Amino acid sequence: MEQIIFEDQNILIINKPRGLLLQQDGDESHLSLDKMVADYLKMTAMPAHRLDKDTSGLCVFAKNKKTADELGKIFNDHTQIEKHYITLVVGNIEEDGVVDAPLRKSFERKKMVVAPLKSGAKPAITKYSVIERHTDYTLLDVQLLTGRTHQIRAHMSYIRHHVVGDVKYGDYKINNIFKRDFSFENQFLHAYKLKFLDIKGHLNYLKNREFSADLPPELQEILKKLDN
């Protein structure tokens, strides 16, 4: 199977391509990563966390129930693992920062919105640091300190630095520019690094292990051409 980053008796880490569903959506005709993994392993494996269809990058699968339970706790806790993404956002960000803004589902708009905790929102914290600046855009390393649905996309929209190509939370005019100039119609978001920290239990051999996946060539080409 292509794009395997790491595999042992307990876990499988794969670099998921953009545009591929992580899990089956009920339509057997739709290709999904969990089905591909099951075909490869000749058994069912459980994804330990979520990744949007149009986000590329690292996905962790558990090969047995004990591992699935432990990984579930690790990914929900956020103190035993670091999840880092690379994203290109609109505008120039001068310095590193943190977005601490609770999120809840807006059923009317079918998206996540910033709202007070008393309204039913859940705590959401996103840490970001500047990798490089372009004329009208900034490339960021983003770390999730909580794991809410669409957290990065919603938080970047909240601070008015929309993720490039994001059709739900992004900037319509900017997205059209990238469609015209780069034939790019998806969100510029890649889950590039996982670092296991003080892991306990039968996965403690992963303590301080770090796994990474390079930015896809399509996204690298966009960065090269941005300021030309």
Poorly predicted parts: none
Count of DSSP E strands? 12
Radius of gyration: 18 Å
What fraction, in percent, of the residue positions are helical? 10-25%
Instruction: Return the average pLDDT rounded to an integer.
Output: 93
- Structural class by secondary-structure content: alpha+beta
Quaternary structure type: single chain
Largest sheet: 10 strands, mixed
Beta-strand content estimate = 25-35%
Terminal-residue CA separation? 37 Å
Overall shape: it is: globular
Helix count, DSSP H or I runs of 4 or more residues:
5
Structure notes:
- This protein has 228 residues and is an alpha+beta fold.
- It has five helices and twelve strands.
- It has helices spanning 33-41, 65-77, 151-158, 172-182, 217-225; strands at residues 4-7, 11-16, 46-47, 56-62, 81-90, 97-100, 103-106, 111-114, 125-133, 137-144, 189-196, 210-212.
- Strands 1, 2, 3, 4, 5, 6, 9, 10, 11 and 12 form a ten-stranded mixed sheet that branches. It has a two-stranded antiparallel sheet with strand order 7-8.
- The longest helix has 13 residues, at 65-77.
- It is globular, with a radius of gyration of 18 Å.
